[in-house]
């Protein structure tokens, strides 16, 4: 099955020397994070992607099967977002942040 993230056959299976897949079909996020991405997760029940970033935010994008995407929300956590995941079977989002001493 082919989609915006390639086919079901991995690049490693087709090339003995490849250590990573091709980036030729990668999709750039519209209005992406201002700092490095720490984690990302696709919703198991919808076309949503959550992105945890070092700019202290978690971003939510709606991603279409052709790769077009639109930012839907962002949450300021006041510290770097270290991880993000979706609750199984729902649209509930869970994120973890880095606690800082004041």
Automatic annotation (TrEMBL):
Protein name (record): Uncharacterized protein
Organism, scientific name: Aureobasidium mustum
Family annotation (Gene3D superfamilies): YVTN repeat-like/Quinoprotein amine dehydrogenase
InterPro entries tied to this protein: WD40/YVTN_repeat-like_dom_sf (IPR015943), WD40_repeat_dom_sf (IPR036322)
């Amino acid at each position: 099955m082919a989609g915006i993230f390639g086919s079901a056959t991995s690049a490693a299976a087709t090339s003995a020397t490849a250590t990573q897949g091709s980036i030729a079909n990668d999709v750039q996020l519209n209005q992406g994070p201002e700092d490095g991405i720490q984690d990302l997760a696709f919703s198991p029940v919808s076309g949503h992607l959550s992105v945890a970033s070092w700019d202290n935010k978690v971003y939510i994008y709606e991603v279409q099967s052709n790769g077009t995407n639109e930012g839907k929300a962002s949450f300021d956590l006041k510290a770097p977002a270290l991880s993000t995941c979706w609750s199984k079977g729902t649209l509930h989002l869970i994120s973890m942040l880095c606690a800082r001493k004041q």
